[in-house]
Design goal:
The chain is an alpha+beta fold and 123 residues long. The protein is built from three helices and seven strands. The longest helix has 19 residues.
Length: 123
């Protein structure tokens, strides 16, 4: 699968999870369910992938973690908040820079219609 096909699969799985669960749950519940759905499609998915910060020649393990990394290409950052804020966008942009990935998906599951909670982020 190419990156766009993987991205479409991620969207399809996200909509499936949101349709089944609706808004109002903890972020961790959505993460587990989306992880399960993506694995069911045969995609390689890593949950809570550590992301080191490299400063000059020093690799710092300071606790950054990507919610889901799909096929080593797409970062998914999951939220369950009243509304996405600028800090959420800054977070996924930072993760994209640190990981050398170029495509990210910021998903807020705490919305009535999931299409209103999805932001595609390209670096």
């Amino acid at each position: 699968m190419n990156r766009e096909e993987i991205f479409k699969t991620v969207l399809d799985c996200s909509f499936k999870v949101h349709s089944a669960l609706g808004p109002g749950l903890l972020e961790s519940a959505y993460e587990e369910c989306l992880f399960y759905e993506l694995r069911q499609t045969g995609l390689k998915v890593v949950k809570q992938k550590p992301l080191p910060l490299v400063y000059e020649d020093v690799k710092l393990e300071i606790g950054y973690r990507v919610d889901l990394l799909v096929e080593d290409q797409i970062i998914i950052e999951i939220k369950s908040v009243d509304a996405l804020a600028d800090i959420h966008m800054a977070q996924i942009l930072t993760y994209l820079k640190l990981s050398n990935c170029h495509l990210g998906l910021l998903i807020n599951f705490n919305v009535k219609h999931l299409k209103d909670g999805i932001k595609r982020v390209i670096l």
